[in-house]
Specification:
3 domains; nine-stranded mixed beta sheet; globular; 20 strands
């Protein structure tokens, strides 16, 4: 992050501290008077800031002591949104307002927040729309570099993207992205968005070298659940409690990420250390990870087919933003956002162009999957 120290040090009002965050020099975010909790969340979500470009910011987020209304305030969706004569607001769980003009998303836009707001809604999708306007796709995917070649792993939620990443990281790959990757079709490049990895205890069974890099409290918690799993497995079935209690205990004992208590959230820098790819990487291979096979197999897949499938995933990932946009259109029917409404069409064109001529394969696997099986099945396609 780059801090404009000349802007002052106030933590509220429109003339406080100004912090700029650049996403690979492609999209710049300027935060004014943002509390530390917001700055920490942005850095954790987006990763370290690149050098800011010498241009006006793409997204301005300003915390103000008050957001005066223009006329009567009306509420939508059981107080999830509101609007007055000119402005649209999203409301957090405590009723604090965030003013967003959905008509301007994708262009340079401004977001205004009341001081008590602790999270910026839809920040990543808003960045994605600005990237889309500039000719890039923010794709739900993981990515790594193996032998200098960039590998993109696309798929549905819990389809195996993180598993593929971990499988190759444990064999010497360099980290690029875990959940979101910027695909630049005109350049043929990939850029990773920082973010936090969600690691399940069963992942660590296949990558024990990463266990020691987790916080001590998380290691103890996971050890306790592993002990519980062994003890539960040794119980005679007739001695287990019945009904709801039995079902809950059984769920805790299962593999495959059933209980969030068996998950650790960790930054890639902490988990992978120096194995971090700096800057953009070439797009050489595209994998579509899917669940459902009894054994891990790799199949040829058309590049356009993968692009088409990922459009459905992209729409699903934008579902909350689109629901909020419906509220906005109800409030202001004469102020549409054509880019948001046509985002899927633009993304399909760009992804089809980006994937054309690349090596494209589907990796089908069971879940949970031994990570070594993923590596052995897919490694020969990464050369």
């Amino acid at each position: 992050m780059n801090v404009d120290k000349g802007a002052g040090s106030s933590t509220s009002g429109s003339s406080g501290e100004v912090v700029d965050h650049s996403v690979h020099g492609l999209v710049s975010i300027r935060m004014t008077s943002a509390p530390p909790v917001i700055l920490n969340k942005v850095r954790r979500r987006l990763g370290p800031s690149a050098e800011a470009a010498d241009a006006e910011p793409d997204i301005c987020i300003t915390f103000k002591d008050s957001l005066p209304t223009s006329g009567r305030l009306r509420f939508l969706g059981l107080n999830r949104a509101a609007y007055d004569n000119e402005h649209f607001y999203l409301l957090d769980d405590s009723g604090h307002r965030i003013r967003i003009d959905f008509e301007t998303l994708g262009e340079r836009c401004e977001v205004y927040c009341e001081p008590a707001v602790t999270s910026i809604p839809f920040l990543l999708p808003i960045i994605g729309l600005r990237l889309l306007r500039k000719g890039h796709v923010l794709l739900h995917s993981s990515a790594f570099v193996q032998g200098g070649k960039g590998n993109l792993v696309a798929g549905w939620q819990k389809g195996g993207k993180t598993e593929m990443l971990l499988a190759f990281m444990s064999e010497g790959a360099d980290y690029l992205a875990n959940e979101w990757t910027i695909v630049s079709p005109d350049e043929g490049l990939l850029r990773g968005i920082g973010g936090v990895l969600q690691i399940w205890d069963w992942h660590l069974r296949y990558t024990p070298q990463y266990l020691k890099r987790l916080p001590e409290g998380d290691r103890r918690r996971l050890a306790a659940f592993r002990l519980y799993q062994r003890l539960y497995g040794g119980l005679p079935k007739r001695s287990s409690p019945g009904g709801v209690v039995r079902k809950a205990l059984q769920q805790l004992s299962l593999e495959g990420g059933v209980s969030l208590l068996r998950q650790v959230r960790v930054t890639p820098e902490r988990l992978f250390g120096d194995s971090m790819w700096k800057g953009p990487a070439p797009l050489d291979h595209v994998f579509l990870a899917t669940v459902g096979a009894s054994e891990t197999r790799v199949y040829p897949s058309g590049s356009h087919e993968i692009a088409q499938r990922m459009i459905a995933s992209q729409t699903y990932e934008r579902r909350d933003l689109l629901a909020a946009y419906d509220h906005f259109r109800f409030a202001f029917p004469g102020r549409p956002n054509t880019l948001l409404e046509q985002a899927s069409e633009h993304e399909l064109q760009m992804l089809s162009r980006a994937f054309f001529g690349k090596a494209t394969h589907e990796v089908a696997h069971p879940y949970p999957v031994p990570l070594g099986d993923l590596y052995r099945a897919a490694a020969s396609y990464c050369t």
